[in-house]
Design a protein that fits this description.
The complex is a heterotrimer of chains A (223), B (1013) and C (129).
Chain A: E1 7-10, E2 13-16, H1 31-35, E3 48-53, E4 57-63, H2 65-76, E5 87-89, E6 96-101, E7 104-109, H3 114-125, E8 130-134, E9 139-145, H4 149-156, E10 170-176, E11 179-187, E12 190-196, H5 200-210, E13 216-219
Parallel strand pairs in A: 3-13
Antiparallel strand pairs in A: 1-2, 3-9, 4-7, 4-8, 5-6, 6-7, 9-12, 10-11, 11-12
Helix pairs in contact in A: 2-3
Chain B: E1 14-23, E2 26-32, H1 36-42, E3 49-50, E4 57-58, E5 71-74, E6 82-86, E7 97-100, H2 113-118, H3 127-132, H4 139-150, E8 163-176, H5 180-191, E9 196-199, E10 215-216, E11 219-220, H6 221-234, E12 238-241, E13 244-250, E14 254-260, E15 278-292, E16 296-298, E17 311-313, H7 314-324, E18 331-336, H8 342-350, E19 354-360, H9 368-375, E20 380-381, E21 384-390, E22 397-404, E23 409-410, E24 415-418, E25 421-425, E26 428-430, H10 433-436, E27 443-445, E28 450-452, E29 459-461, H11 471-488, E30 529-531, E31 536-537, H12 538-546, H13 552-559, H14 572-582, H15 587-590, H16 604-608, H17 625-630, E32 634-638, E33 641-646, E34 650-651, E35 654-655, H18 658-671, E36 674-677, E37 682-687, H19 691-698, E38 711-717, E39 723-733, E40 736-741, H20 746-759, E41 767-770, E42 775-781, H21 785-792, E43 807-812, E44 815-820, E45 829-835, H22 839-850, E46 856-857, H23 860-869, E47 919-926, E48 938-939, E49 953-961, E50 966-974, E51 983-987, E52 993-999
Parallel strand pairs in B: 1-7, 8-9, 8-15, 9-12, 15-29, 17-25, 18-19, 18-25, 19-20, 36-46
Antiparallel strand pairs in B: 1-2, 3-4, 5-6, 5-7, 10-11, 13-14, 14-15, 16-26, 21-22, 22-23, 22-24, 27-28, 30-31, 32-33, 34-35, 36-42, 37-40, 37-41, 38-39, 39-40, 42-45, 43-44, 44-45, 47-50, 47-52, 48-49, 49-50, 51-52
Helix pairs in contact in B: 5-6, 5-11, 7-8, 8-9, 12-13, 12-14, 18-23, 21-22
Chain C: E1 3-6, E2 11-14, E3 19-23, H1 37-45, E4 53-59, E5 67-73, E6 79-84, H2 96-101
Antiparallel strand pairs in C: 1-2, 3-4, 4-5, 5-6
The chains are: A alpha+beta (223), B alpha+beta (1013), C alpha+beta (129).
The complex binds zinc ion.
Chain lengths: 223, 1013, 129
């Protein structure tokens, strides 16, 4: 394991632990939305609830499924989704692997785990042709739940969000309003939106507007 | 006023709920369940509009979306104005306020009526084109008066208080129309297990069954409707959308439905006590299969003065009688060419009113309904038709005559029947609109006297839309279509549904009659209207054919037939039949008719949905946005990004001007230290053993020897040799690079890399991923930059250790960072990348330490001035897709001898790209230092030359430079590099001409010493 | 609004997720320096514009970011097949059955399909109604 902020060199690639050694206040992509009053106190009473899960570790894995599958299972305890649009989540629901394209997966783990995981995967994958890219600062995860969550999504994405189109264990990259997101169905109870940082405020404003008739709350824990 | 025309009983209205509404300033009562049209008829309002061209009085003609006359302006308040509402489709609500769309200043007596009096000789078809189009410049003046006089409705002058919505729907079977065919289709599909959406444009489902005389399974038609709708409503897989018009059918079974959510309740959702709810909603439905069960519209017959109020389509009269309990007159003459219309005579008689006669164009009609009418004692005149209506503000009589339809002549003596209402029926036109929206031509069926839809992939037809009219057959046809649609959508276990039994009714054949011959030739007969909304007459159509228009498409454009808000739903077929008769051809030979979306007008609100106001377009923010706002930045839109443009300060209680702020920011960078949020630059992580090879192919310059820790500027061309993007790429490790792109190029460059990798060089082992959002980027630049950086970083900043075009990893303000010594200002500069979540911390720390250096935040405008002073281009501003690296004088960034034929190389030797006199990038120095040339200004060599002058190039970037104390510009100029020192001229639109000297593109620090300090 | 089957995602998606990238099966000359200016110009600028069956490259821009090909009828807008990069279409305008079913006609002076040239004039003769 390397020291925070230092550089290791595996497979001629420069890995980079972006977390400071000493704790420093971080700002989630919804910090500005909170500042302008678009984030509510916890425990909204509406029929739609959007909760940001900030500061998670997001890694993009690139490579062939055969190359990556064993390493991911060994290091993460999760199978690489075998089918397109698959989403596999661990028993605790805190780690997941999502199919993005035939040679691309999104791994989400608790914040702070990502750098160690990247190093372990790199070590295990050795000289194979693959890439791992840390994108934790570039996106955030928003959980959408409530009786009218599906209705709000129907106003926002053209994808079929009915259980026929998006059953549990499925995730799709698609258009959300006038931007794009990854829309995931980890469980019956909720949808997950993986939102790009720079579009996060727009997505929240959109959700608030689209959910207005049902009552909607947006929460974002600050740590 | 009381409702004189209201029957004492009957109809589907709620007589216990009286609603008050206002039409043209007069208050009237109506009942819940009325449409505006039925309430107007109940109150005996004959004239609802003035006609478009001749300003003739017009009354309600139909009962549905085909209504051409009763087009009103709705809304009590200015903000709630809705133009072009069909009174026949608008549910009545308490407090409804409507005005005639046409007929300024009032519908009864109208300043435009002189036009009508002058009549045909003054306004022949083609009148607008012939009279007002020349001179073209006067059209604006004419148009103002014509539009005001004619009226096309007006949009509200205030902002709409309501909200609108889109809903994306998916289903297995979308059934359009909930009449008999639609209901059985939905039932069959739903019972088979399909996800079904059933939509219908009316206030309640049932379609023609709501005014039917027929009996289904021993019950009234409406009872059967209620049963079926209840069953469908109970099924979880069924979505029922009443009050929802299918307006557009698009490729691959994409259908737009317009649902009126609160429009039937009040002017606004708030007025309806439903504040915050949606006024109307656009459903965007992707259907596996579509069942089109849109039914048919009854065609009126074309006869003289057929537009006088009191002339109505026969079926509409039955609708008003049976659904609304309204008899829109006392004495009826029915003129028809078919059996079905006879029901209107029966309905009228049962309402206790007098049927003067049924006039049938057929010689020997003998169907069951005909017998029923005869048996009830009604006079039936055969082989005849109503040739002309009498009356001006209301029908006073019908002139009936025997006719020969084949020779198109009258054959007997005219009989004048006194009446106040003429019902006409010329047969039925299937509502094929949606089937033709994607361009499929309908087919004329002479046996059915109508157009039926052409084959449309994924669409099934049921009932009237394919000219299946008898109720029993319609119900069965719907069940068949619904079952087939479900099966095609993958539900092959479909059980056949039992269709209710209907008593058979023998019918005699309909005869082909469209225009009734008149005793006078068409051109001299009183007006026989074909298209009531656009005042197109039979004479107009005939004249068009005489003037040489032989295709219906040309006739339509010449006469405006079918160009109204009703799309000619009533008139088109009659117009085609008349054109065909005049041209001695068959209807299909004259052409078919194709309709376009939308079927009925859709409000802009519904089209826009939530994409308005601050949600009109996404706004992208960097991680530092909050700081920029708090520090008074003015913002510039760069793509979707909000970038600080400049940071005006408060000086002596006043806000700095942009000019002053930018000058201050520029000098701060040149003399002290400034900081820029450069997070919007595209950043692409490139990994793989072939990353270096790939860069060599995609960039024009060389990458083989760039060592880890080093950075290089690269140019990217398309294969036509024209610059598409530029930026620096850093070697992070042997197989690992970080590419930067322009802000606008971030997404397109990534896709460009993928394109080449996926399509041409899949064998190269390399992956590309965007890290634009992951890293925040801050540029610290200026002579004091090193001192400031030294206070916050653990990186060795020694100029020998950390050279220009090096990058280092370390911490900045305790946060792990990659720092790049690259410069876009020409000054010493450090570009810092940190994970975006920590960006604000680092930025604030820099300011905490930067106070003593007067660290100055600067925006994009200062960035532009500083880079332009150094002759550094911006791809997309100084280039436009027609500029090569050589045009830019950047041969130093072209690896002519690289082994692989990189993208853009071959094109550079094509004769046109190798021309000596191509436009080349130069500097321009205005002779008058106070002048800042206009970007885009054209360059000429001879200021005295007459227009058109020989244009030699144009200004691409132009600013005022505080260090030069002068305006300066970059420009592209033909053969520019050989014109150094020459004087060129820039003529401006105000008549002045600027002089400028052609100079080198580097205006400041030509030896590039400052960035290397 | 097309509904396009992405061969990588394995299902149909709305057109707004995609972006067209012009004619499919264009091959960059392996050795650009050895081709004439005219040939290079052909590669860069000249494209078929058939009335009927056309093969186009699209990218699933807002989905899996992969490029793929579409066989599409340019008059009916029907998409007949989609297939990944590196594969060849199974449906072409040369197939008589396809010509009939798709009602393919040739426009004056227009070539029906990719690679069709005047010397292949037989392709342009019959015009089934
Ligand atoms: Zn895809």
């Amino acid at each position: 394991m390397s020291e925070a902020g230092s550089e290791t060199n595996v497979s001629n690639v420069a890995v980079f632990d972006t977390h400071p050694a000493e704790p420093i206040d971080a700002e989630s992509p919804l910090a500005w939305s909170r500042q302008r009053g678009l984030v509510d106190a916890a425990g909204g009473s509406g029929q739609v609830s959007a909760i940001e899960r900030p500061f998670l570790g997001h890694l993009i894995l690139r490579g062939g499924a055969i190359t990556l599958d064993e390493a991911v299972r060994a290091e993460l305890g999760i199978n690489l989704p075998g089918q397109p649009l698959g989403l596999n989540v661990d028993a605790e629901g805190s780690r997941s692997v999502q199919w993005l394209s035939p040679d691309e997966w999104l791994v989400i783990v608790p914040g702070g785990e990502e750098f160690a995981l990247e190093n372990r995967l790199r070590e295990r994958l050795g000289d194979a042709h693959f890439a791992i890219v840390n994108v934790s600062g570039g996106q955030t995860l928003v959980e959408l739940s409530g009786d009218k969550a599906r209705d709000v999504l129907m106003k926002s994405v053209t994808y079929d969000v009915h259980s026929h189109g998006l059953p549990v264990g499925k995730a799709v990259g698609t258009v959300f309003a006038k931007t794009s997101i990854n829309l995931r169905r980890p469980s019956e109870a909720c949808f997950e939106l993986v939102v790009r940082r720079s579009f996060a405020d727009y997505c929240v404003r959109w959700l608030r507007d689209a959910g207005r008739e049902y009552g909607v709350s947006v929460e974002s824990p600050t740590s | 006023m009381s409702q004189n025309n209201r029957l004492s009983q009957g109809g589907r209205i709620d007589r216990s709920r009286v609603l008050t509404f206002t039409f043209n300033g007069q208050q009237y009562p109506g009942f819940a369940g009325d449409t505006l049209a039925s309430a107007l008829l109940a109150n005996g309002v004959d004239v609802v509009n003035r006609s478009f061209k001749y300003s003739r009085p017009r009354g309600i003609t139909a009962a549905g979306p085909e209504e051409p006359n009763a087009i009103v302006q709705l809304g009590a308040s200015e903000a709630a104005q809705v133009p072009n509402v069909r009174a026949t489709q608008q549910a009545l609500y308490d407090g409804l306020v409507a005005r005639s769309t046409n007929g300024w200043p009032n519908v009864q007596r109208d300043v435009m009526s002189w036009v009508g009096k002058l009549g045909g000789s003054f306004m022949p078809p083609g009148f607008y084109y012939k009279t007002f189009m020349a001179p073209a410049s006067m059209w604006m003046t004419y148009e103002k008066f014509i539009r005001k006089g004619a009226g096309l409705g007006r949009s509200p002058a205030e902002s709409d208080p309501d909200i609108y919505d889109h809903l994306n729907q998916h289903c297995d079977v979308l059934v359009i129309g909930a009449g008999p065919a639609g209901l059985t289709a939905a039932l069959a599909a739903a019972r088979a297990g399909a996800r079904v959406i059933l939509c219908d444009e009316q206030e309640e489902m049932g379609g023609s069954l709501l005014d039917s005389r027929e009996v289904l399974e021993g019950a009234s038609a409406t009872e059967w409707v209620e049963r079926v709708v209840a069953e469908l409503a109970d099924m979880e897989s069924v979505t029922l959308l009443p009050r929802t018009t299918a307006n557009g059918y698009h490729d691959h079974n994409f259908v737009t439905l317009h649902e009126r959510c609160t429009e039937h309740l009040a002017d606004t959702a708030a007025d309806a006590g439903r504040a915050g709810e949606v006024r109307s909603r656009l459903h965007r439905v992707r259907a596996e299969r579509v069942v089109l069960a849109s039914g048919s519209h009854e065609r009126p017959l074309v006869y003289a003065n057929n537009d006088v109020p009191g002339n109505m389509v026969a079926g509409a009269i039955s609708v008003y009688l049976r659904r609304y309990g309204v008899a829109p007159g006392q004495r009826l003459v029915l003129t028809t060419n078919n059996d079905h219309a006879y029901r209107t005579a029966l309905d009228w008689k049962e309402a206790g009113r007098e049927v003067v006669a049924v006039v049938d164009s057929r010689a020997n009609p003998d169907g069951d309904r005909v017998k029923q009418v005869r048996d009830s004692g009604i006079r039936v005149i055969t082989g005849s038709a109503v040739m002309e209506a009498s009356g001006s503000q209301r029908v006073s009589g019908a002139r009936v005559v025997a006719i020969d339809t084949t020779r198109f002549v009258v054959t007997g003596k005219i009989e004048e029947l006194a009446c106040d209402t003429i019902a006409s029926s010329g047969g039925y036109s299937p509502v094929i609109h949606l089937a033709s929206h994607t361009g499929k031509r309908p087919q004329w069926r002479e046996d059915l006297l109508g157009f039926v839809p052409g084959e449309v992939k994924g669409m099934h037809f049921a009932g009237g839309v394919q000219a299946v009219y008898a109720l029993g057959e319609t119900l069965a046809d719907g069940a068949r279509a619904g079952g087939e649609a479900a099966k095609a959508a993958g539900f092959d276990q479909a059980e056949a549904i039992t269709v209710p039994s209907v008593e058979a009714c023998a019918e005699s054949a309909t005869s082909a009659l469209y225009q009734v011959p008149h005793e006078k030739p068409t051109l001299r007969a009183p007006k026989q209207f074909v298209d009531l909304q656009n005042d197109v007459t039979a004479a107009g159509v005939e004249l068009a054919t005489r003037e040489g228009f032989e295709s219906i498409e040309h006739v339509k454009r010449y006469t405006a037939l079918g160009f109204g808000t009703d799309q000619g739903k009533l008139g088109n077929i009659n117009g085609m039949a008349i054109a065909a008769r005049c041209l001695h051809r068959s209807i299909p030979e004259v052409g078919t008719t194709v309709f376009r979306p939308n079927y009925t007008p859709v409000s802009f609100g519904a089209i826009v949905g939530r994409h308005c106001g601050e949600l009109f377009d996404p706004e992208r923010y960097t991680a530092l946005h909050q700081w920029h706002v708090e520090n008074g930045a003015e913002f510039e839109d760069v793509g979707h990004w909000k970038r600080p443009w400049y940071f005006p300060r408060q000086v002596d209680g006043k806000t700095e001007t942009m000019h002053d702020a930018v000058a201050r920011e520029c000098l701060a960078v040149r003399q002290g230290v400034g900081i820029l949020d450069a997070s919007t630059l595209g950043k692409i992580d490139i990994q793989g053993p072939d990353a270096r090879e790939f860069l060599g192919r995609i960039y024009t310059n060389k990458w083989a020897k760039l060592a880890p820790g080093r950075v290089r500027y690269g140019l990217m061309c398309k294969d036509d040799g024209m610059l598409m993007d530029d930026g620096t790429t850093s070697c992070l490790a042997e197989n690992h690079f970080l590419m930067t792109t322009t802000t606008g190029g971030a997404a397109s460059v990534l896709e460009w890399l993928e394109l080449w990798h996926q399509t041409e060089w899949p064998e190269l082992q390399v992956y590309f991923n965007s890290v634009t959002d992951h890293f925040a980027t801050m540029t610290v630049t200026g002579p004091e930059a090193r001192k400031l950086m030294a206070e916050v970083t653990d990186i060795d900043l020694d100029r020998e250790q950390f050279k220009f075009m090096d990058w280092k990893q370390g911490t900045v303000a305790g946060v792990p960072a990659r720092v790049f010594r690259i410069s876009f200002t020409g000054e010493l500069a450090f570009e810092i990348n940190v994970q975006a979540n920590y960006a604000l911390h680092v930025w604030k720390a820099l300011f905490a330490h930067g106070e003593k250096y007067d660290l100055t935040p600067y925006g994009t405008e200062t960035m532009h001035v500083l880079r332009a002073e150094k002759g550094l281009i911006i791809a997309g501003q100084d280039t436009d897709g027609s500029v090569t690296p050589e045009d830019l004088g950047m041969q130093w960034a072209v690896g002519y001898d690289k082994p692989f034929p990189w993208i853009g190389k071959r094109a550079l030797t094509r004769p046109d790209t190798a021309r000596e006199d191509r436009k080349q990038l130069v500097g321009l120095k205005p002779k008058d230092p106070k002048v800042v040339l206009e970007e885009g200004a054209q360059i000429v060599l001879d200021r005295e030359q007459k227009i058109p002058m020989t244009m030699m190039g144009h200004v691409t970037s132009s600013y005022y430079s505080p260090v030069l104390e002068s305006g300066f510009a970059l420009a592209v100029l033909k053969g520019g590099r050989n014109r150094m020192g020459e004087t060129v001229y820039l003529p401006m639109s105000d008549g002045t001409t600027h002089e400028a000297e052609v100079v080198n593109t580097v205006f400041f620090d030509p030896k590039w010493e400052r960035q290397n300090v | 609004m097309f509904y396009i089957h992405c061969p990588y995602c394995g299902e149909r998606r709305e057109e707004e997720e995609f972006h067209p990238n012009g004619q499919a099966h264009l091959v960059r000359p392996a050795d650009p320096d050895s081709v004439s200016d005219e040939e290079w110009g052909d590669y860069l600028f000249f494209r078929d514009n058939p009335r009927g069956i056309h093969h186009e490259m699209w990218v699933h821009r807002l989905g899996c970011r992969k490029f793929f090909n579409i066989t599409r009828n340019t008059t009916t807008y029907e998409i007949l097949e989609t297939y990944p990069m590196g594969e060849q279409p199974t449906i072409t305008a040369e197939t008589a059955k396809v010509r009939h079913e798709q009602g393919v006609q040739t426009a004056d002076g227009g070539w029906q399909t990719v690679g069709a040239r005047p010397e292949n004039s037989t392709l342009n003769e019959e015009t089934p109604s």
